[in-house]
Amino acid sequence: MILGFISLLLTFGQSYIAKICIPETLSNTMLPCPIKTDTGTAEAGGGHRRKLLTNALIRGNIQHRILAAGSIVSCPLGKGPLISMNGLHQLHIFIFFLAVFHVASGALTMTLGRAKMRRWKEWETETSSIEYEFSNDPSRFRFVHETSFVRRHTNFWNRITILFYFVSFLKQFFSSVCKADYLALRHGFINAHLAPGSKFNFQKYIKRTLEDDFKAVVGISPVLWASAVMVLLLNVNGWEELFWASILPLVIILAIGMKLQAIIARMAIEIQERHVVVQGIPLVQLSDRHFWFKNPQFALFLIHFALFQNAFQITYFFWIWYEFGLKSCFHDNFDFIIARVSVGVGVQFLCSYITLPLYALVSQMGSHMKRSIFDEQTSKALKKWHQAVKKKHEKGTSHASSVHETSPRGSSPASPLRHMQRYRTIGHTRELSNS
């Protein structure tokens, strides 16, 4: 919707934008292609100059700018148009490419994320079996270092910080979430936010959380738009800025994956430091202090930024290919182009299949549970309750009294609160598993 609105604004104001003139010295600076001078005719490599910003073909007399539509922009001597009509047309095409790849990238992200969580569904089903209840009987005592979760994450390299993070870095590629990790995190979440021993479908909850995170990472913000503009402005011939900009999403995604693996390992180490003997499954301690700046949402913002920049890089490559050809001056160093596209595809797969599902799981280890804990029907009930209280308040009734009064439908507005309290009892939490 935002891309369509931008395209509409460009269509409405294109005649005014094309009349903006700038000094010729400015239009010949910071070009993405080298300028070749040939007997008084200045041309960008392959006959093309900056077709997005100045974007005019200069042939013959430098005072004339020949547009794609055949019209001529009249600018004073020594000045040229900021952007031509042909440049605006190409910008429309670029916006279309962005929209198409945005949809394709989003579909791929959700498909790979759900494929990753398919195995977690088997582990969740196993928690209802007799074998699971017997092997994790709360009355059964075990040494902490003998449990699978603690044994997996406590080794000699944990004492050396560099080795600890190096191992955490490698774990995101090899068995990023094993069965012991999933069951330990599930057990800690249920004990912290629900009644111990609840038959809560943790996998469905993580799936709803992943969908909420997906809504965040496919959005747009002024900060992301500003970063895209900076990438285009700094795309200067010889700087290889696009290659280094494509490396940034890879570094961010790898750093987030390493941090999430380190959080799981830290929780296992804390269990070993606190206890020698444990009952049933080791109990992890949920806290925001495990995350950067004590804010789990900061990692989601970084994922959002990395995916946006990665999508922008891949879209830019296909747009240049479509508009100017695969072997145009924009692709002088073709080895860098191949490396940039390969990194983009790798980042998309890595984030969709590993990092984003891992974040959806580990982010539950924060101090506060997410609103995804409630199913869709409960969320609607809470919204209706909130609207009923708001109407009461607008009529002059105090908020405190409106909570205890009867709603217009004959039910108490506070009934959703009692409904929320069911989730903390063993008997009623079974309803969540069927939601």
Which helices and strands occur, and which strands form pairs?
Blueprint: H1 2-17, E1 21-23, H2 24-27, E2 35-38, E3 41-44, E4 79-81, H3 85-126, H4 130-135, E5 141-143, H5 148-153, H6 161-171, H7 179-193, H8 202-217, H9 222-233, H10 241-274, E6 277-279, H11 296-324, H12 334-362, H13 376-394, H14 399-404, H15 415-421, H16 430-433
Antiparallel strand pairs: 1-4, 2-3, 5-6
Helix pairs in contact: 1-3, 3-8, 3-11, 3-12, 6-10, 8-12, 10-11, 10-12, 11-12, 13-15
Tell me what the structure shows.
With 435 residues, the protein is mostly helical. The chain has 3 domains: 19-83, no CATH class; 98-373, no CATH class; 376-433, no CATH class. 59% of the residues lie in helices and 5% in strands. The chain is built from 16 helices and 6 strands. It has helices at residues 2-17, 24-27, 85-126, 130-135, 148-153, 161-171, 179-193, 202-217, 222-233, 241-274, 296-324, 334-362, 376-394, 399-404, 415-421, 430-433, and strands spanning 21-23, 35-38, 41-44, 79-81, 141-143, 277-279. The strands form 3 sheets. It has a two-stranded antiparallel ribbon with strand order 1-4. Strands 2-3 form a two-stranded antiparallel ribbon. Strands 5-6 form a two-stranded antiparallel ribbon. The longest helix is centred in the N-terminal third of the chain and has 42 residues, at 85-126. It is elongated, with a radius of gyration of 29 Å. The two termini are 32 Å apart. The relative contact order is 0.11. Mean pLDDT is 76; it is low at 38-72 and 399-435.
Strand content: under 5%
Number of helices: 16
Tally of discrete structural domains: 3
Low-confidence stretches: 38-72, 399-435
Task: State the end-to-end distance.
Answer: 32 Å
Which strands sit side by side, in order, in the main sheet? 1-4
What level of helicity do the residues show? 55-70%
Shape: elongated
Task: Indicate the radius of gyration in whole angstroms.
Answer: 29 Å
- Average pLDDT confidence is 76
Question: How many strand elements?
Answer: 6
Q: Please identify the structural class as seen in this structure.
A: mainly alpha
| Major sheet characteristics | 2 strands, antiparallel
User: Which sequence of SSEs, written as H and E, runs from N to C?
Assistant: HEHEEEHHEHHHHHHEHHHHHH
